[in-house]
Amino acid sequence: MNRDELVAACDRLLDAGRFRDYTVNGLQVAGRDRVVRAMSGVTACQALLDEAVTWGADLLLVHHGYFWKNEPVAITGMKQRRIRTLLLNDINLLAYHLPLDAHPELGNNAELARRLDFSVEGCADGEPGEGLLWLGSPPPGLDAPGLARHVGARLSREPLLIEAANGGEIRRIAWCTGGAQDMITAAWEAGADAFLSGEISERTTHLARELGIHYLAAGHHATERYGVQALGEWLASEFGLEHRFVDIDNPA
C-alpha cells in the first residue's frame, strides 16, 4: 500500500483537519513509501520503536506521537534518539490525538464504551465525531463501588474511585479517556451521576466531593489502548496490511 494514500484515507476517516489540537495529526515522520506491516501502540516511546524495528514494521500508528504544543523544538536527547530510530529504519510515524478520541466508531471513547457495556446517548460538547465528553448509562444495578469493580475487571486495572456522598444506582455516566479530569464540572452540569476518565489531579477530589458526582480515574494508558487498535485493524482490513498491536505496560 502506498504510504501517502494510506495517510490520506486515515485523515479522511478521522476528519483530522477539523480539530484544533495540541500536536500534529497525521504523518509526523516520513519513512518508506510502501507499507505492508503496520504496528500500533498508545505512545511512540522508545520501547515501542524497538518493537517496530524488530518486527520489521513499515509504519507505526500511535495516539501519542511527538511535536506537542509548547515543548522544546530542539531535536536532542530522548527526542533525537527516538526520531533517529525511525529515520535509520525508514519507519513512518502516524499519530492521531483528538481525532482518535472523538471518532464515533473507532475512537477511544467509543471503544471504551463498547468494552464497558455503556449505552451511548451522545456528547455533551458537540455532535458525535466532534465532541469529547460522552454521555450514556452503565449496566443497570451498579452503585459507585460496583461500577469501579466492573471497570477494573474489564480493563484489568483497578480504578481510583472518589465516591460522592450520595449513593445509590448510577443511572447516567459521562466519560472522556486520558487526561480529561477537568471535564468533571461539565459532566456534572450534563446531569451525570458519575464521571470516568484516565487521570486525577489534586483538585479533582474536592470537585467530585463538593459537586456530588462520583469520579473514577481508570488510567490514561488503560483508557486509551483501544482506539488505536481499532484504527489499526481498520487499516488491515481496508488495505490488506499486516497489523500488530503492542501494549507497552504503563500503570499511569
From TrEMBL:
PANTHER family attached to this UniProt entry: GTP CYCLOHYDROLASE 1 TYPE 2 HOMOLOG, NGG1 INTERACTING FACTOR 3
NCBIfam families with a match to the protein in the record: YbgI_SA1388
Name of the protein in question: Nif3-like dinuclear metal center hexameric protein
SUPFAM superfamilies: NIF3 (NGG1p interacting factor 3)-like
A Pfam family this chain is assigned to: DUF34_NIF3
Recorded family membership: Belongs to the GTP cyclohydrolase I type 2/NIF3 family.
Keywords assigned: Metal-binding
Presence of the UniProt keyword Membrane in the record: no
Organism taxonomic ancestry: Bacteria, Pseudomonadati, Pseudomonadota, Gammaproteobacteria, Oceanospirillales
Keyword Cell membrane: no
